[in-house]
Specification:
The chain has 13 helices and twelve strands. With about 375 residues, it is an alpha/beta fold. The strands form two sheets. Strands 3-2-1-4-5-6 form a six-stranded parallel beta sheet.
Length: about 375
């Protein structure tokens, strides 16, 4: 069988619409701009997307780039690195596998394996076995954050991880503030997010407390409409609520002084792309403590009930808040700028992977095994229904 050769082979289900899709788009554009030959194969996974979900036009548009080619399905595809993006579409196999021969194969793990309640979201062993059986290549796992790495390390030495993370990246020029923020005590506070209960606080009290409207606080949200909040019992009388994509995300974030992000305890924010976007746009970020592993000292951390108090502290030191936002933006550029993708790509070609358990681990071997058993018990029961 004839073969086709690429530097980078990207395999992704094109129905992703959120952070995964944006991360893939940024990677592909950066690799193509660096002169690398990129092959793109859109897989069709099972049991992950809803029937009404369709191809993301921004992912489809990547095929218009001169250095990106759609992978022929009737040929063996060779690549220096094959990137399988997001584990879950591959768990039940895909409709259109191709034969892959790669110097290095990685699963870019955009979603950590454990849920917020500790249950297993997917079976990493099943996923890598499906990829080996359908595509003929055995992958290494590339976490997108320290949170993700600690969870995947729970399955070591049975899983092999890359030595370095493959984090989300950003075309920094697209995320440049145009408005000076935090200049007066009156603060514009908000966030964006899709209308899914996991992406917002556990209940109406937490959601309202995390976005406390008041005489010196204007609330702006985008992505979830008024009906979503009303169904949860959240009072939004003084909020400015914008529907999904009512404004370009950089423009929306540029309108905020403070980005207040709290999600349900059922959800694990594997990276927090929306937070990094807000930092790049110069907003002071107020986050739940779990995100400190990713963003360190570049945000303020508290419980939803403490947000109003944190906002008062910001008002009392606007100069310090502005200085902190500049440092956070510089840190994001240093760590997440897309211009570093080509160098990371070259480093990944030489990465043999590791099965070491040294470093933070989310679960003991016994707990990981018990969660794995519970996952398959639930899956078996669901199939019987």
């Amino acid at each position: 069988m004839a073969s086709t050769q690429y530097d980078a082979l990207i395999l992704v289900d094109p129905r992703f619409m959120g952070g995964t899709a944006t991360a893939v788009e940024t990677d592909v554009r950066a690799l193509e701009a660096a002169g690398l030959a990129v092959g793109l194969h859109f897989v069709t996974g099972h049991d992950f997307f809803l029937p009404h979900e369709t191809i993301n036009p921004r992912l489809a548009a990547l095929l218009d780039l001169s250095g990106v080619q759609r992978v022929p399905c009737d040929r063996t595809t060779r690549a220096r690195i094959a990137f399988f993006h997001h584990p879950q579409p591959f768990q039940r196999g895909v409709d259109n596998p191709i034969q892959v021969i790669a110097d290095n194969t990685v699963i870019v793990c955009h979603q950590a394996p454990f849920k917020g309640d500790g249950a297993l979201e997917y079976d990493p062993f099943l996923i890598q076995r499906q990829i080996r059986n359908q595509f003929g290549t055995l992958p290494t796992w590339a976490p997108i954050s320290g949170i993700c790495r600690a969870q995947l390390r729970s399955f070591s030495p049975l899983l092999r991880l890359t030595h370095e993370d493959w984090p989300n990246t950003f075309q920094v020029g697209d995320w440049t503030p145009k408005r000076e923020k935090l200049t007066i005590p009156h603060l514009v506070v908000g966030r964006h997010g899709r209308p899914h209960t996991d992406k917002w606080g556990d209940d109406r009290t937490d959601i309202a407390a995390s976005l406390p409207a008041g005489a010196l606080t204007r609330i702006r949200t985008m992505g979830a409409d008024k009906d979503f909040f009303e169904a949860l019992g959240v009072e939004t009388t003084n909020w400015d609520i914008l529907p999904f994509n009512a404004e370009p995300v950089p423009d929306f974030l540029d309108s905020l002084d403070v980005f207040s992000y709290f999600h349900s305890s059922r959800w694990i924010e594997t990276f927090g792309r929306t937070v990094a976007e807000a930092m790049l746009m110069g907003a002071r970020c107020v986050l739940q403590p779990e995100l400190k592993r990713t963003f360190g000292d570049h945000a303020l951390y508290c419980e939803p009930s403490e947000v109003a108090q944190v906002l008062n502290a910001i008002r009392n030191d606007l100069h310090g808040a502005r200085q902190a936002t500049r440092q956070a933006r510089e840190w994001c550029i240093k760590n997440y700028a897309a211009e570093f993708i080509p160098a990371r790509f070259e480093a990944l070609t030489r990465d043999p992977g590791t099965t070491s358990r040294r470093g933070p681990i989310a679960a003991s071997p016994f707990t990981a095994a018990r969660k794995w058993t519970g996952f398959h018990r639930r899956s078996h029961q669901a199939r019987k229904q």
